[in-house]
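In response to the reviewer comment on reproducibility (Comment 2.3), we provide here a single inverse folding case reported in full, input and output, so that an independent group could reproduce the run without further information from us. The structure tokens appear first.
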């Protein structure tokens, strides 16, 4: 302690010097960051758009009105419309339970919510095949009752549901833990019902994080490839989502069709980034 206090003032680094890197380091890091963004984000998006319109607008439009492309778009939208609301309900319920109650298995539930982040999508798709496939655990019962899950739309929705269910919950849990329950307890003490407390106190406080989680969930649902590829069976016009249609078209040397379909997903990614930034700004503002 004496050695530190005896340092001459002229030799002790100032707070400003300690908190600021040299100009050349900041410049180098900026160049590296911008270079990575240009190389791995902007350049691939530019190539997708260039290849999609390489043969003109007419070829681009014809590729998207093909029956298989239309069926893939419809199935992708249907999957998102089915899974996102379910994941929203689950995310809000799980976040509420974890942040407002103490119960046996709470830490296990928190761990299980993160499970899709640590398991490969291909492995998760294979799990559904082992459970609901013809030779799976429930395969004989499903066949006896003429219920088809694997290589059909229900399997695609189950796989997508599994892959995307952490997004809403993971956005809400930290916010609700930080927010605390004082305002909700005050509302209840003033005679508000549980639903009134939720709609008038809780929901306004979590709305931006909720929208952020829904946005990420929707983007992942529309762009999921690995798990859906395992359970879909790649049946044209029936079980090919838009990412699978891109693969099929590219493998058949239909490059315009592949990149035209990919441009829709790329456009979705761009819109997602814009909305994500807007929601982050709103969340930080509030």
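Designed residues, in position order:
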């Amino acid at each position: 302690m004496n050695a530190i206090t005896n340092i001459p003032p002229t030799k002790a680094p100032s707070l400003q010097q300690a908190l600021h890197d040299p100009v050349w380091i900041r410049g180098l890091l900026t160049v590296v960051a911008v270079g990575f963004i240009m190389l791995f984000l902007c350049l691939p998006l530019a190539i997708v758009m260039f290849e999609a319109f390489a043969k003109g607008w007419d070829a681009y439009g014809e590729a998207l009105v093909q029956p298989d492309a239309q069926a893939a778009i419809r199935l992708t939208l249907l999957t998102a419309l089915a899974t996102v609301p379910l994941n929203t309900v689950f995310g809000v319920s799980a976040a509420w339970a974890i942040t407002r109650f103490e119960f046996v298995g709470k830490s296990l539930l928190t761990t299980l919510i993160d499970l899709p982040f640590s398991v490969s999508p291909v492995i998760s798709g294979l799990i559904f095949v082992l459970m609901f496939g013809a030779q799976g655990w429930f395969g004989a019962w499903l066949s006896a009752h003429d219920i088809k899950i694997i290589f059909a739309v229900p399997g695609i929705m189950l796989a997508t549901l599994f892959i995307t269910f952490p997004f809403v919950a993971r956005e809400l849990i930290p916010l609700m833990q930080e927010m605390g329950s004082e305002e909700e307890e005050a509302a209840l003490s003033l005679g508000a019902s549980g639903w009134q407390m939720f709609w008038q106190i809780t929901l306004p406080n979590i709305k931006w994080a909720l929208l952020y989680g829904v946005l990420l969930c929707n983007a992942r649902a529309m762009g999921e490839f690995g798990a859906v590829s395992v359970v879909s069976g790649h049946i044209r016009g029936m079980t090919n989502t838009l990412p699978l249609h891109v693969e099929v078209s590219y493998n058949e040397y239909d490059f315009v069709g592949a990149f035209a379909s990919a441009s829709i997903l790329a456009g979705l990614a761009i819109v997602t980034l814009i909305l994500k930034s807007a929601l982050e700004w709103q969340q930080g503002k509030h």
